[in-house]
Amino acid sequence: MESRAKTENIIHGISASQGIAYGPVFLYIQSDVEIPSYQVDPDKRIEEIARFDHALLETRQQITKIQSEVEKNLGPDEARIFDAHLLVIEDQALISETIREFETTSKNIETCFSKVSQRYIEAFSKIDDEYLRERAGDIRDVTQRVLQNLLGQAGQNLSRLADKRIVVANDITPSDAASIDRSQAIAIVTDSGSKTSHAVIVARSMKIPAVVGVRDLSKHIKVADWLLVDGYEGIVILNPTEQTLFRYGKIQLQKKSFEQRLMEATRLPSVTLDGSPVVLRANIEKIDEAGLVKEYQADGVGLFRTEFLYLSSPRIPTEDDQYQSYKSVVEALAPAPVVIRTLDLGGDKPMASNPELFPQESNPFLGFRAIRFCLEYRDIFKDQLRAILRASAHGRVQLMYPMISGAEEFERANAVLEECKDDLRKRGVAFDEAIEVGAMIEIPSAAMTADILAQKCDFFSIGTNDLIQYMLAIDRINDRIAHLYEPTHPAVLRVLKQIVDEAHKQGVKVSVCGEMASDPVYLPLLVGLGVDELSMTPPLLPAVKYFVRAIRLEEAKKLAEQALSMTSPKEIYALFDSFCHERVKVE
Ligand code: PEP
Ligand code: MG
Predict the structure, then answer these.
(1) What is the rounded CA–CA span in Å between residue 175 and residue 178?
(2) How far apart are CA 61 and CA 53, in angstroms?
(3) Could you tell me the pTM of the whole model?
(4) Could you please report the per-residue DSSP string of 114-164?
(5) C-alpha 433 to ligand 2 mean position (Å)
(6) Ligand 1 site, residue 464, Cβ cutoff 6 A
(7) Going by CA atoms, what residue is nearest to atom 10 of ligand 1?
(8) In the list 143, 201, 308, 511, which could disulfide-bond 533, CB 3.0-4.6 Å?
């Protein structure tokens, strides 16, 4: 075989879909459409705009066609990816800004459209939310398609592979991803991309391994190369030796039986070996994720990030739009609780379609975001609160505010909530009069005044993603200082303990809904500190539940106590990491 004559080379990327595959490469290189730039004669202006309309229509038809093919081959969930594409093509702001650009510059419509969509792509790329950042990919995908149609160029595609291949690409657009030849693609490797890219979603639905972020592998690889893709560890091995292949054959068998064990835990109760229940809930962003909450048997939703409803829409959703969305999740999961978090827009998550609402800021993480935005734009806030209250009549809803800095702010938000309750009473609309209202604890000032806040709140949910960033002064999306973002910093441990202790003194339950909750390594720490509930992305639930069932509350408490007396974040991490590895053996 060709592979044996060449040298083995190990490339590290990011694990995106689990599994192991070995096979020859199908190299797929995507390049941006080259755009000519020229002035359009004044008497050709109407024709130019008609050309644009025609390309939009053509693109729309192509997307609808792909969508129905995907629905047939992959199912309705995957087909819904293209709703986001259709929204881009129908986005009035994008279309009218392009025409305005054309009217002011008289440049050909390709140049104007490309310039305007680039602005949108940049705005989305800066959003501190992996899923929403990926929407930049949707806009880029649709833009490329419109440009190809304007220029009369046909794109490449991955829909017909000659034999079993590992697809290696610099990038894979959602339409490429959805049209991938499912009978022949055995793994996906991309230079760029993140764990939530569409290529990854498709790889997971096909149950094939995917590794992303391998930088410029597609530039160095040749079609004759053979690859081994380890989707568990995020490793790609170019031209592996016989020895490596043998080792991986064994690993593959072990991992398969371990995964089976994890999935078996899904059906079992989440209790420690000494009988203490640990409530595990799901974090969701979209209404159709209610299905995943059930599939992974989460105990309801611990964090519904509602920003997505706003960011995926070309306009601010109305009270009714939101009511329908919340109601569908609440009804689907009743009687399990759904914690709906009010809008956490602004700062690093501006709404591209309403830039006037979000002034440019030099310190967006310390700026006009979340509850600060809502308390200023009362009408937007009230529409959302009424929608949540109305949904509470259909199941069990708990409401929580993000980025609360202290008790006064919490009370200000609650005063608005009371006005909304009055509005609904006057309208004779049903809602849960006893709806529970909690605060996210993610700003150090809220953490330090947890004793005061606990007197006003029904529950706490600790947003460790933000809390750690503010405690340690580490921008959570800055790669350069990412290594300094340490959840096991003694300051973090102390603040977590303080929040839990103060809440418990007042009988208030504490959940953790930041990423820390989904990593089994931190489970004994959080449970040992007394955290009552953990909320995480649904597919991560089996591993956490498995680990809950493998530990004792008493030993978790001892470990947490030991960690609180230690000084080095790395040593504290090592303590929990080795405990995790000792307890959970992949064999
Ligand atoms: C957090 O900050 O931990 C959190 C869950 O909120 P988000 O990640 O949406 O800011
Ligand atoms: Mg947060």
Answers:
(1) 5
(2) 12
(3) 0.68
(4) HHHHHHHHHHHHT-S-HHHHHHHHHHHHHHHHHHHHHHT-PPP--S--SSS
(5) 27
(6) yes
(7) 466
(8) 511
How many distinct structural domains can be found in the chain?
3
Ligand sitting nearest the alpha carbon of 467: 1
Give the ligand at the shortest distance from the Cα of 283. 1
Nearest atom, ligand 1, residue 402 CA: 6
Which residues participate in catalysis according to the annotation? 198, 513
Ligand 2 centroid to Cα of residue 283, in Å, is: 12
- Which residue has the least CA distance to atom 6 on ligand 1? 463
514 CB within 6 A, ligand 1: yes
Same domain, 194 and 138: no
- Of 151, 170, 189, the last residue of a domain is 151
Amino acid making up residue 134: E
* CA 467 distance to own-chain centroid: 18
Count CB-CB contacts under 10 A for residue 532.
Answer: 19
Q: Are 60 and 173 members of one domain? A: no
Angle at the Cα of 190 from the Cα atoms of 31 and 136, rounded to 5 degrees? 65
Q: Cβ(307) to ligand 1 under 6 A?
A: no
* Residue 315 shares a structural domain with residue 204: no
Q: What is the CATH number of the domain that holds 145?
A: 1.10.274.10
- Looking at the structure, tell me whether residues 536 and 402 fall in a common domain: yes
- Name the packing angle between helices 490-505 and 569-583 (round to 10°): 70
Per-residue pLDDT of the chain (587 residues; tens, 9 = 90+): 333 456 788 999 988 888 899 999 988 877 777 788 899 988 888 889 989 998 998 888 888 887 877 777 667 777 777 888 888 888 888 898 999 999 999 999 999 999 999 888 888 888 777 777 777 878 888 888 888 888 876 656 787 787 889 999 888 876 677 678 888 899 999 987 666 566 777 787 677 899 988 888 888 887 778 999 999 899 999 989 888 988 888 888 887 788 888 888 889 999 999 999 999 999 998 888 899 999 999 999 999 999 888 877 778 899 999 999 999 999 999 999 999 999 998 876 777 677 788 878 888 889 999 999 999 999 999 999 999 999 999 999 999 999 999 999 999 999 999 999 999 999 999 999 999 999 999 999 999 999 999 999 999 999 999 999 999 998 876 656 777 889 999 999 999 999 999 999 999 999 999 989 988 999 999 999 999 999 998 988 999 999 999 999 999 999 999 999 999 999 999 999 999 988 876 55
Q: How far is the CA of 540 from the centre of ligand 1 (A)?
A: 16
User: For residue 51, how many other CB atoms are within 10 A of its CB?
Assistant: 17
Ligand nearest to the CA of 128: 1
**Which pair of tokens denotes residue 104?**
């002011």
Q: How far is the CA of 335 from the centre of ligand 2 (A)?
A: 26
Residue 513 Cβ inside 6 Å of ligand 1? The answer reads yes
Domain that holds residue 143: 42-151
Q: Structure tokens of 282?
A: 């799901």
- Number of alpha carbons in the 13 Å side-chain half-sphere of residue 74: 26
The CB of 463 under 6 Å from ligand 1? The reply is yes
Q: Which two tokens stand for residue 273?
A: 């070996």
Buried b (16+ CB within 10 A) or exposed e, 552-562: ebebbeebbee
| Residues 481 and 525 reside in one and the same domain | yes
